[in-house]
Design brief:
The protein is mainly alpha-helical. The protein folds into two domains: 2-76; 85-148, no CATH class. It has helices at residues 2-15, 21-47, 54-66, 68-71, 73-76, 85-101, 107-125, 130-138, 143-148.
Length: 150
Amino acid sequence: MAEALLEMKQAVENAGGALPEEEVRYWEAVYDERLANGRRELEERCQQGKHGGVHHAQRFIQRLEKRKQEALLFLRKKEVPFDNNQAERDLRMVKVKPKISGTFRQEDDAKAFCIIRSVISTLQKHGKPVWESLQKLLSGESLQTLLHSS
């Protein structure tokens, strides 16, 4: 399955974004085939008496089947990323900060840190210069206005 997903990602990159519907249907068939292969392999393991991890794998396959449209949405919509690495990077700072300079003394400090990180991340995602944008925000300009100005 991992190889198929990486091939799908490459196809999307080669197309410069979303794929034509015909190609999406092809990749959906590949996805379905890989899930069916996974189910067969699990059944074989059960018949051989090897039950280790089978239950978790079955639940994982069920989730992949149930969430197929969400899992493959990156094939149809250019703005949907292949992975969630950006979300993970956004959260990483919350974990790194206490390791570097210690924990927050009060809950309000942690909340303020999260708000500031969220604003910085939003500015970066919108391609805005962070330092100048923060200065404008501190002088009273709203984030909404700042994000929608050119």
